[in-house]
């Protein structure tokens, strides 16, 4: 596996574009579209929040058959808490896009991010579709990545090449992280394309495994959005023998997908609101990886740990209290080892070793700073 | 039931004192003692953290028989992460105190709060005991309440009088809240005395019920300390018919105890680090009160909600996202009602109504402010 450049249009058969449709007052790009030349296998993971935005509901329905050809994304408006009209708008966004592309509406996935509780300016989106579809290009990955951002400071892309059954396969991804537009909440979106040939079942499994060790291992502020989603389109144009069962080919693909997801997840943390530090939390010696991840996220989400890191103070007491806060039996002062890397650098690492078992996990977070408070308190 | 003044020495048969023993460099009071003239029934609730400080371990052992006569508390040092020496020091603190009072060591409970990871200056404590015990007085409740503080800005006391079986009964309490001394974590301590006659079993039950609706319903920063404890001593000197079963007398006592606990809990939130707002979160229409409390604490601990409140912004989207974050089935946009009181005042109230059932709960929190970040980042 090799890291290359190119983003979501690097795999064969994908074209994309991103443009300003009039949603953002800043006149920055706010509408993105990626399309596969041929029908693609698709898999997605969505927010676990009970309260979900309209586009998530539409995606769950359109993605049910495991096939899709296009993803349309707007930024600047989350289409969340918008009631029946919001749902109708999300459906119309998919339908109008499908008509413009000459494909079925159920082959179009929809995502939104931005301000919540305000009607989606659907007319601006439909009016922009002719220009958006006309401009689709194999060089449009970067424009797509720009069009999905809210207050992110930088675009986030990752592309890798690997070999499956003797054929070169490419996976390209982009993401947006925790941006805040009053009165909005952080939303995490990830879009991944690949020319690998893989069955829906195995793609779903690969995304599940990759997501567990990447997007599910990061936390900026512990708050779960109503719009989070990560979606993969796999169009098979690489011509590799179809990955249809566990084995060497599946493992290679899954590992490459995990690399893309983890890199994008880390970039989201790095660009976290007000973040001045990138914190890696290793938890070792647990019964299961899930347990290690849960403990790691307790540490990552502890305001006391986050402020200590901001203050460059290696406060192991706060880490120990966070480790113990889940009330897991078998954790005690004398069976707990905590070590730190230098706190003076931008990259900080905390290793917690328990004596419960042999599993481990790594989670990533940022510090809690005055800038986070400022961003989330002040409204313009 | 009537609210009166007086604190923990207001009930019959309790004497207390608080003094500076040399632990705090500020020369503020750092050692407190309360003693009952006669053996008392006792009940306690402790932190659920897996990692606990030495005094908690000692209290669990000494409190096991449901009887105690004295509580000795030091502030300025938490005696936590202090290993075997820390445990030996906590035992010696109880033993020396018992000797000075002429009672059994197992009748003495011990609490500590302050800096962690540093050896308890046990010699300063034992050296101060003659002066401390000599100065015990029925007017010493306030000095006791002062001696348990760390960076709390004010003492926290609550006293109520009620009638049980025709006899006047008094319950007095004091508490300390979220104070921070580098590199320490917040600790919540509550000490309650009463002259009620009540069996250990019923006292335990009353404290459990009172605690659930008070100390368990507050959160300043969602971080659980290693030293938290709430303890009641009931010495029976009021001469009321012993409360030994559920019924009218038990209910009256439990309600009065709940009033004391809730008032102290609210005072802890009001004095929370950097707090500028007092936030009451009502959650209605849940299956159980526990579920309502869990949802309320998700809202209370959401950094996005807390910063919105600091910014005086009634951001219902952030509240809705926090309500949904537990992933409870049956919560959705159209079955969720959120209302706010005016956000411009110091007292803010948020009411969330669900359609899951008929239970409800109320939780209390403060906002997340620049001052919180400053207190927890800077070390002096």
Question: What's the topology here?
Answer:
Two copies of one chain form a homodimer.
Chain A: E1 2-4, E2 14-19, E3 31-46, H1 54-62, E4 67-77, H2 83-101, E5 108-115, H3 122-134, H4 141-147, E6 156-164, E7 167-176, E8 189-194, H5 200-212, E9 218-219, E10 229-234, H6 248-270, E11 278-286, H7 289-301, H8 303-310, H9 316-324, E12 337-340, E13 347-353, E14 359-366, H10 370-377
Parallel strand pairs in A: 4-5, 8-10, 9-14, 11-13
Antiparallel strand pairs in A: 1-6, 2-3, 3-4, 3-10, 6-7, 7-8, 11-14, 12-13
Helix pairs in contact in A: 1-2, 2-3, 5-6, 7-9
| Annotated CATH architecture of the largest domain in chain A | 4-Layer Sandwich
Q: N-to-C terminal Cα separation of chain A, in Å?
A: 45 Å
Q: Biggest sheet of chain A, open or closed, and with what strands and sense?
A: 9 strands, mixed
- Number of folding domains of chain A? 2
Helix content of chain A: 25-40%
Shape of chain A: globular
Radius of gyration of chain A: 21 Å
Structural class of chain A: alpha/beta
CATH class of the largest domain in chain A: Alpha Beta
And the CATH topology of the largest domain in chain A? L-amino peptidase D-ALA esterase/amidase
